[in-house]
Amino acid sequence: MGEVFVPSWGSPDLTVINTTTNTVVWTLDTGLGALAHDHMTGEIFDAVAGGYGPTPGRVVVISDTTDSIVTTLAVQYVTGEIVYDSGTDEIFLSGWNNSSGPARYYLTSISGSTNSIVASISLPGPPGSLVYDSRKGEVFVADGVSGLGVVNDTTNTLVAQVTGGTTGSPMAYNFENGEILNANYGSNTVTVINDSTNRVMANLSVGANPSAITYDSGRNLAYVSNPGQGTLSILSVAPAPHEYEVTFAETGLPPTELAHTWSVGLANIPRGSTSSTISFYEPNGTFGFGVGAEDGYSITPSNGTIRVDGARVTIWINFASKSTFFLNFTEFGLPSGTPWTVTLAGTPQSLETSTISSNEPNGTLSFSVGLVGGYSASPQSGAAVVIGEPLQILVDFTVVPGAAYSVNFTEIGLPLGTTWSVSVGGTIHTASTDLVTFIEQNGSFAYAIEPIVGQLIPSPGDVVVNGRDANVAVWFAAGLYLVLFIELGLPLGTNWSLAVWDATTGLNEIHSSTTDSITLYLPNGTYEISAMVPPGYVGTLASSTLVVAGRASSGPTVITVSRGSTVATPTGTRALSLLDSLVVGGGVAIAVVAIGLLAGYCMRRSRQRPHDSDPQPSYRITPETEPVVLGGKRKFDSEPRPTPGGTRPDGDEPDTFSDLE
């Protein structure tokens, strides 16, 4: 309901008008006084003047819902000026008494939540108009003798005096510029005061006897009523340098603790609040802050610095009770590894385990459970009441039919307890069991397996969800070794191949190259090796068997010679460099080097041996008899085998295979 409360001049009545029907709906006998509205409690405070003699003043508290008197407070000194402070939910009213003895001047503060007097603040001179500065958390009181008094609404103390020709005439507050506009009845001026420095910035001439002033924030204009000549002065207010909001937001204080004021000081300016936030307005720069102590609580951070750089700043202040208890939220029904959230007292907490825990003091904290695709939670929200012992709240998740499905990744090959991760659509889930689960709606989703040191990284892929759960097997292999075959003797760019087969694991691969090397990654085991060379050459293996046994050594040797030629190197072969000392039986050797390496390798499984199919008719493959073991010495014939003609093409004496050791 929209209502207007109107004090009646010359009458003790307070009239209430309905703004919809424009009719009087209530008349209260409160006495003539100034009004202030507490929007937090929905109450009207009517300051009824008194206290000049034996009759005390009073403040009548009226409910704006029932239009009835809630209570009446006896206040010894009331002059009728009153203002509401939204930062601390307090009402400030001015008063003084000079009926007998020395005059006494006061500013009285009343709690809006308890309707009781909080403090009486002594002033040096008779108070007049009041204005509340929400940026600084201060109340300015016009002092007809010494200027303006500045009262901090957190400490309820007089913190500054402003001099410069001001009187007790009405004031207005310019929030955008942080300025107080004080109309001076006797000097026909308006004094402009900066609320950061508490200094007079200007004295502006207006009409005769200015007695009222108001500020239009939309147009940056101030309007001054001049009854001495029947005019209205309009003042243009210059924009102030830009300032940004600095907000301190508390967590951890239960509602019972917020009934009294908590405080923060920024740049040596203290400010308090009974709400969960305290705001300042500062220009760009670096400022120090400190948080007021609270009995029974530790504070993090309790002090520090903040930097304002062209944008608003929020600093979270955590109050932790020195006597706290575990508050556990435990879920049932979600697949292992599914992330879920609980927002507790406005602070979200997210985990991928079944229990979310928090240390909380005694009190009541509201909570809500975040949405999980394809599931509904019970309870969805509520209140957690901590009373001297741990508290557990069970959250039951049930599947919403047809909404979403589980995508299960099952690992094979990792040691028990190994932590591994899967990424789907940029979201990563991690587990130390063999199962990682995502919840997805129908569609196709790209996935990748995160790297693990010493393990193969299985290739990325796509998983399709189509009306039911999807399952993906993830194979890992460990303990792999790099085997490097270096070819010598073929013309540059000639294609040659190696076939590798393991009857135990079923590995069956053919690798080809037009360079001088082929690289394989093999786990421990025994392999059969076949070499395939182009027409006109003979491929000879030192052994058709390769044993990988966990350490680096040499592998089988392949010899290629030109068919029907007595010259070791066919015409057109490239110059030898790295291994040009390896010449055997008139041909050029292909050396095989094995290097132990923990790396990824995904084994293609097939049960057909590569040499079960006939090689190309132009190829000739001649295996030797001696096996070569990775990690051990290579064994060859005791006597070196010379090339045809007894020398290498370059005229050097032939090398033995022992040169490869």
How does the helix and strand content classify structurally?
Answer: mainly beta
Q: Which segments are poorly predicted (pLDDT under 50) over 5 or more consecutive residues? A: 563-661
Give the fraction of residues assigned to helices.
Answer: under 10%
Name the overall outline.
Answer: elongated
State the gist of this model.
With 661 residues, this protein is mainly beta. 0% of the residues lie in helices and 52% in strands.
Q: How would you describe this structure to a colleague?
A:
With 661 residues, this protein is an all-beta fold. Strands 46, 49, 51, 53, 54, 55, 56 and 57 form an 8-stranded mixed β-sheet that branches. A 5-stranded mixed β-sheet has the order 48-47-50-52-58, with no helix packed on it. A hairpin with a 5-residue loop joins strand 1 and strand 2. The chain is elongated, with a radius of gyration of 44 Å. The C terminus is likely disordered.
Outline the fold blueprint.
Elements: E1 3-7, E2 13-18, E3 23-29, E4 33-38, E5 43-48, E6 57-63, E7 68-75, E8 82-85, E9 90-97, E10 104-111, E11 117-122, E12 127-133, E13 138-143, E14 147-152, E15 157-162, E16 171-174, E17 179-184, E18 189-194, E19 199-205, E20 212-216, E21 221-226, E22 231-236, E23 244-251, E24 262-266, E25 269-273, E26 277-282, E27 285-291, E28 297-300, E29 303-308, E30 313-321, E31 325-332, E32 340-344, E33 347-351, E34 355-360, E35 363-369, E36 375-378, E37 381-386, E38 391-399, E39 405-412, E40 420-424, E41 427-431, E42 435-440, E43 443-449, E44 461-465, E45 470-475, E46 480-486, E47 496-501, E48 508-513, E49 517-523, E50 525-532, E51 537-541, E52 545-548, E53 553-554, E54 558-562, E55 583-584, E56 587-596, E57 621-623, E58 628-629
